[in-house]
Design a protein that fits this description.
91 residues, rod-shaped, mainly alpha
Amino acid sequence: MTDRELLELIAAKISSMDMQLNEMHEEIKKVNSELSEVKSRLTSVENIVTRMEHDHGQKLQALFDGYKQHTDQLERIGQAVIEHDELLYSK
């Protein structure tokens, strides 16, 4: 193999590697673009989840308050029944 052939072979390989490098660069750009979109969508999902947690927290608090009021009312009714029983049986 002559020096010229060797240089042509090296130049062809470098040209091929340069094309592959350019293709990889374009693919990296696509991946970065897609990653940016994924980050944006993730932020949107995080915001939705935060809002849902807040809303559900308020709803659970309202349910707990209702349960507490119901329990208190049952206790008052139970106490009133006991008082009526004592009045009825004491006579």
